[in-house]
Design goal:
Length: 487
């Protein structure tokens, strides 16, 4: 029973179908009637922009921990299974929707089926909310980057004003639960200055706010010309992290204990494959790391030419993302193995999840390896590149929607598109202020869980319903085939 095909006809009749961009597809946009949508200067720019968005901080701090805690090398099996079963099909779907409607997520879903326009609007809202607190991580990275130029790294000792000397340890405390490492105290007492709970906001942290402001300024300067400026920036921000990761891996494998750390990371625990949680973790990691349901992939694909080869781009982005996750895991766990050897502690006592891995554990590693004056700034530049690429995307989703929906009306007041981008960045900065108070870490954790986990699952489900069931999965495949033949 071909429900999808029948439903597809209903939606296409109301909206004129998904037509080639040289037809009237672009003219159906409320604000861009008669306007010609810009395209990428070269296909490499699109690939680098989408790879840069997909490859983010989650590849460095989430995947390595999930891999070692979910069966080591055995986790690769459910992970790659989810890449091919969930990740690649969903990414293909989003690329197809963007490329053939040549619209942002809101108007793209409205064109496919008006009933699901809210799905596109929800992706825009989530992307904007996400960028308001994700950019705070960039502020943290800037603060660490500036401090890494000191003669002695400030998180390497307990002789600082923010240290609680009675329970501070210059290394990892191991089983001594009453002690904290100096790196942990730098993160808690210097960077965050966190209060006792979310009910106690505390005062504004001016140093972190200054770094947050700097981050937003850089983002504005990189995207204020739209894809014309973003396409040039990603040549550096998407490629440079790989040079750093390979350099760190080469350096780390020469350290004592690195081999044990890598073996701990990749040694399979086959019994874990029978645990449902492991498969759920694999699906969640693929889902989040590819940036699905944020609207960015649809927005960026809308600037493609009609005859662009979607299948090729999907495979490049997906496999590059998976390769980067594994590479980052080798880098992180070779360093953790070194710290395990240095402090004579099991790897379990050192490995951790989330921001603590890159803002506590790895800074501690950097403070002890030879040539830390070189490696510490390089590592935080890499984090900045990984994060900024993702931020470009989240802001661009909002700007694309505003131009599609209110373009002519907005330009009557702001005159130039650059001012529209500036307004979006200023609003994002203001909404990020609660995260840089002394109680901001609790707000950050709350927003991270509600925005980046639960909401995306529902959005992806309704995206699939709209595209594959109502519009028709066969229609998407046919249009992909027609673009390949046209090219």
């Amino acid at each position: 029973m071909e429900i999808g095909v029948g439903s597809s006809s209903l939606c296409e009749d109301r909206n004129g179908g998904l037509q080639r961009p040289d037809a009237k597809a672009s003219a159906d946009s409320p604000a861009d009637a008669g306007a010609q949508r810009p395209t990428w200067s070269g296909q490499l720019e699109f690939i680098l922009a989408t790879v840069g968005y997909a490859v983010g901080l989650g590849n460095v701090w989430r995947f390595p921990y999930l891999c070692y805690s979910s069966g080591g090398g055995a986790f690769i099996i459910p992970y790659l299974t989810m890449v091919f079963v969930c990740g690649i099909p969903l990414l293909f779907m989003e690329f197809a929707v963007g490329q053939y409607t040549r619209l942002g997520p809101v108007h793209a879903f409205a064109k496919i089926c008006p009933l699901f326009k809210g799905v596109g609007l929800a992706t825009v809202v989530i992307s904007f909310v996400f960028c308001t607190f994700y950019n705070v991580i960039m502020g943290w990275a800037f603060l660490y980057f500036f401090n890494s130029f000191r003669g002695t790294l400030p998180w390497s000792s307990c002789n600082n004003t923010w240290n609680v000397v009675g329970n501070c340890s210059s290394g990892f405390p191991g089983n001594a639960t009453h002690l904290q490492s100096s790196a942990q105290q730098f993160f808690d007492h210097k960077l965050l200055e966190k209060t006792s709970g979310i009910h106690e906001a505390g005062s504004l942290q001016w140093e972190v706010f200054g770094c947050l402001l700097l981050s937003w300024i850089i983002i504005y300067l990189c995207i204020f010309k739209g894809i014309k400026s973003t396409g040039k920036v990603v040549y550096f921000t998407a490629v440079f992290p790989y040079f750093v990761l390979f350099a760190l891996l080469i350096n780390n494998v020469q350290l004592p204990g690195a081999k044990e750390g890598i073996l701990y990371f990749i040694t399979p625990v086959w019994s874990k494959l029978f645990e449902v949680k492991v498969w759920v973790n694999a699906a969640a990691q693929v889902f989040n790391s590819l940036g699905l349901a944020f609207g960015y992939m649809i927005s960026m694909a809308s600037y493609n030419k009609f005859n662009n080869n979607i299948t090729r781009d999907v495979l490049i982005v997906s496999l590059t993302n998976s390769f980067t996750s594994i590479l980052a895991g080798l880098v992180i766990f070779s360093a953790i193995g070194y710290m395990s050897f240095k402090h004579n502690l099991p790897v379990d006592n050192i490995a951790t999840d989330g921001p603590g891995l890159v803002f506590v554990v790895y800074p501690e590693v950097l403070s002890t390896i030879p040539g830390y004056q070189f490696w510490a700034p390089l590592f935080f530049i890499m984090l900045l590149c990984l994060g900024l690429d993702s931020q470009f995307g989240n802001v661009e989703v909002v700007v694309t929607y505003l131009k599609d929906q209110f373009g002519i009306k907005v330009l009557q007041y702001l005159k130039r598109e650059e001012l529209l981008v500036l307004v979006v960045c200023i609003v994002g900065l203001i909404l990020g202020i609660p995260h840089v108070t002394q109680g901001g870490i609790y707000v950050f954790q709350l927003m991270d869980h509600c925005t980046a986990v639960v909401s995306l699952i529902f959005l992806a489900f309704f995206e699939v319903v709209a595209v594959c069931w109502i519009f028709g999965g066969c229609e998407v495949s046919l249009r992909a085939s027609s673009s390949a033949s046209a090219g």
